[in-house]
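Worked example (supplementary).
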Amino acid sequence: MAAIGDEASAMDNIARAPAAQSAALNPASSGGGGSGSGSSSHVEAPEEAAATPPVAPKKPHTNSDGGVETAEEAVEPAEPDINELCTDMFEKMAIFLQGELTATCEDYRLLENMNKLTSLKYMEMKDISINISRNLQDLNNKYASLQPYLDQINQIEEQVSSLEQAAYKLDGYSKKLEARFKKLEKR
Amino acid sequence: MASVDSQPRFGQSVKGLLSDKVGSCSGDVIALTRQVLKGSRSQELLGQAARNMVIQEDTILHSEDSLRKMSIITTHLQYQQEAIQKK
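After joint prediction of all chains, the assembly is encoded as:
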């Protein structure tokens, strides 16, 4: 309701200001007949102007170029810090939106870094496995050069085991012979 | 999506209407941004990818340890082979 009163008073000021001006400019034309109404309007205008000192709307200018009347819109004067507030609001909104999008970007960066580290680890493992394969190939080649000696060792072992078997058999046979000899000796 | 009625509110000042409209527009922009991010499912997919990589890292470390042990064993075999060849 206060807004209605302010708005109405502002519109009345706009409407009556030209009337006051015209009344001031043409006091003679108004004369005695219009003096009462002119003075009353003149009295009312300052009263309402005094009632709304902070609101000083722009006086509409009427142009009548070429017989066409044009008028500017009556606007209230902007607050002195409204521009700063608007700039601040849009800046903060931009920062907020940027933050929302930056979160996803940071997730991608994290994954990128993790992938890079994993690829480095795999490269190290690749180097290690290359070294191992090279060493094992050298070992296989040297083992191939030692193969005849190893075969000889195997043969020697087989022969030794057969010799051992023969020795056991000979030992048993000699024991049997000794027992028979003793039997014959007792007779 | 709009939080403010589109019909003009009678009895409200122009300034109040303007501020309400600005507030509703900013809220709509924020909601739109959030919906776009939610619709892309980037957070879910990236989180799942990060979790899988963390699980995989343990296996990678184990594999690396095994490879290092294998290289040490290979080195010992080389030393033994050289000793055999000398003798």
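Two points are worth noting when inspecting this output. The radius of gyration of chain A is 60 Å. Chain A touches chain B at residues 3-4, 6-7, 89, 93, 96-97, 100-101, 103-104, 107-108, 110-111, 114-115, 118, 121-122, 124-125, 128-129, 131-132, 135-136, 138-139, 142-143, 146 (CB under 8 Å).
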